[in-house]
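Practice record 12: protein with flavin mononucleotide.
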Amino acid sequence: MSRSRIVVGISGGIAAYKSCILIRLLRKAGADVVAVPTPAALEMIGKTTLEALTGNRVHVRTSEAADQVTHVRHAQEADAIVVAPATANTLAKTRWGIADNLLLNTLLAARCPVVMAPAMHTEMWTNPATVENVAVLRSRGIDVLDVGVGQLTGKDAGPGRMLEPEAIAEHVLATVARTRDLQGRHVVVSAGGTREPLDPVRFLGNRSSGRFGVELAREARSRGAEVTLVAANVEASVLERAGGTRLVRVESARDMLEAMEREASGADIVVMCAAVADYRPVERLDVKRKKTGEDLAVRLVENPDILAALARDRRKEGRLVVGFAAETGDETASALEYGIAKARRKGADLLVVNEVGERLGFGDVDTAVAIVADDGTVVREAEGSKSRMARVIFDAIRERM
Ligand SMILES: Cc1cc2nc3c(=O)[nH]c(=O)nc-3n(C[C@H](O)[C@H](O)[C@H](O)COP(=O)(O)O)c2cc1C
């Protein structure tokens, strides 16, 4: 396997001196490291030190080494970028897509995983501007680490310290390992919500936006897998984020079953994230139903259980099957208890249980998941953005493989 290339971005915090230790640790682990300091960082530590530690030339401005187009080349060649320390200023500029130094250009051009380790005074860290910038960056999939609590520059102490270089190095190396851990694997993900037609213009549907499935497809691709996304009624603006995956569009539960059975043969991992209608109208009119002035009863018939169908032959066909269960709790049991019972019943290798409600779980919001094995054991519980949860889910899948 080729050596990984890691860009260490350094912005102008006093913790910049610790980035020297981070560089040493990453090199010791076998990585090829390129340092990209901001002009403010070079007032804290010297270019000579960084060139000696990395063994690579250090550039700061976009205009330097213009023949090598460093502002995009660094990003294109990197397996991961880590910014440590990340100042309030660099976090803010990254959030807004500003590119007035080489590090910011590199971040804007990056398609690889980006980890940012913030460091600043407590007042700056807790300022609503920074809080919002961090939330937006995380929602876009940038891995903004938490801060430590302790001694800051000067006499004060509190939250805002950069994590120690050892912890950052470990995190970045694990991130790089993830970019390859599904190489050569074929992953099929279903996303969105099915629509069960009543007549040519009306349907029974659900609130699923397809965002979670799209984040799962992105995560699988970022880990080197070949990905097929089977999307049921997902808006184009959501599908945009799944760029690079093979797309199969379906409408109803029966279309979904046909597509999933076809795509799953030959797949290594199948993640059934779509919200599939349990029932469909018995009758689908060929013409628009007219108003009669009377009450109307619609008879429904049960749809096929796609997850159970995919799980049935999974061992024989050598694939790992992951299901999703959107649950609501009631007075009898919690959402998780219903999820555990379902995991035992369905026979998928893993079941991701997420609690949903009118304002919970659907669309562009954080979510909480519990990942349950087929024997009912809860293997992971986590909460956060859908892109973060997608990472947690594939970590659990890797462990199970
Ligand atoms: C001694 C010193 C220490 C600083 N430490 C920090 C820090 O830890 N975090 C931070 O956000 N800004 C810190 N600053 C302020 C930044 O250097 C300043 O906002 C600068 O514009 C950041 O530019 P950059 O993000 O392009 O590196 C410090 C400034 C000085 C002079």
